Amino acid sequence: ALKFIRSEKPENNGMLLSEAQAQAQVKHECVCQIHEIVESDGQICLVMQFIDGMPLGKIAERLNPEQLLSILEKILRGLQQAHSQGVLHRDIKPSNILVEESEQGELRPCLIDFGIAWRNQQNGSQADTSGFGSPGFMAPEQAEYQHHQLDRRSDIYAAGATLYSLFTATAAKPLDTTKREALFPDGSASHREQYWPQIPADLQSILVRCLQRN
């Protein structure tokens, strides 16, 4: 698969190339692999692994909770590999998880679209991708453009929002992005059963932890 990375700011191309190179170093069976990075006439093209699968959000309804959790566990292990190399995804959501299904019914998930990913750098010289992300899945600090506060916990928030959406068929926050509240801004778990009756209690505890505003 070929993916072209375009920036409205030509000065960002060098940093975008650096981020693509960082992603290419992440080697995990559940992370879409970059085979080659080509730069020509100011354009960056990624030669990527082709995933012959469907977005998780489109097949979630026919999967049981155990299958969903198995898929998410594998994706989180891939994400952990990226984090261990200082790479953040910043756009985790069901449509960025493709699931291949073998003839034997085996489900193989893969995390795609690191297009707005960046690498934690001490000098803070990341490309300017302010405002990128997906409403309903962005951590508060990302939605509020506080990019200096982004770290692996921002991806954990999005992973929690993804888990929530898969079990409830809705995004974790209102799509009205003027409202920056998380479901439980103070991390309180009180009365959560009335909001999440379809989610087992142990997963509710995980969600409350993931979706804390602080």
Structure description:
This protein has helices at about 15-25, 55-60, 65-85, 140-145, 150-170, 200-210, and strands at about 1-5, 35-40, 45-50, 55, 85-90, 95-100, 105-110, 120. The chain is of the alpha+beta class and about 210 residues long. It starts with a strand and ends with a helix. The model is unreliable at about 120-130 and about 175-190 (pLDDT under 50). It has a three-stranded antiparallel beta sheet, covered by helices on one side. Strands 4-6-7 form a three-stranded antiparallel beta sheet. It has a two-stranded antiparallel ribbon with strand order 5-8. The longest helix is centred in the middle third of the chain and has 20 residues, at about 65-85. The radius of gyration is 17 Å and the shape is globular.
Question: Summary?
Answer:
By secondary structure, the chain is α+β, with helices and mostly antiparallel strands.
- N/C terminus separation: 38 Å
Structural class: alpha+beta
* Number of helices, counting only DSSP H or I runs of 4 residues or more: 6
Largest sheet geometry:
3 strands, antiparallel
Overall average pLDDT: 78
Order of helices and strands: EHEEEHHEEEEHHH
C-alpha Rg (nearest Å): 17 Å
Helix proportion range: 25-40%
Q: How does the overall form come out from the CA principal axes?
A: globular
The tally of beta strands, per DSSP, is 8
Strand content: 15-25%
Please state how the strands of the largest beta sheet are arranged side by side.
Answer: 1-3-2
**Residue runs with pLDDT of under 50 for 5 or more positions:** 120-130, 174-191
